[in-house]
Structure formats: structure tokens, C-alpha cells
UniProtKB/TrEMBL annotation:
Name of the protein: Ethanolamine ammonia-lyase subunit EutB
The species this protein was found in: Methylomonas albis
InterPro entries: EutB, EutB_N_sf
Pfam families: EutB
Superkingdom as given in the UniProt entry: Bacteria
Gene name, Swiss-Prot/TrEMBL: eutB
Amino acid sequence: MNYSATARGKRSHFRDLPILWAKAMPRRAADELAGLAADSEVECAVAQQVLAEVPYGDLSKNH
């Protein structure tokens, strides 16, 4: 499932829940090495906003 939102005129797209989750979390070396860390604080904030709106059922399907 694709997730997306717009903030400050920039549209951010997140291909799937694991990527959305990684971009919503504080920067970690492992996420950076894997290329999953948010590119900016704005992208991280957008990911957090989108993650907050993900239905619980979607979260439990992707454990």
C-alpha cells in the first residue's frame, strides 16, 4: 500500500509501511546505511503524520 502526504508544498510518498516506519523514526545509522532514513526533518514529520493516520489493521498485518 502506498502512503503519501504534502507538507510545505512538498509531496512525500512512502512505498510501504516498513519504509514509512523507518522515515518516521529518529535517524539511526542502520536506517541511513540502508537508505531508509528520512531525507529531512520535514520528511520525518510528514512520515510521522502519515503513520499516525495508518489504521491499526494495516499495522497488525505487517508485523
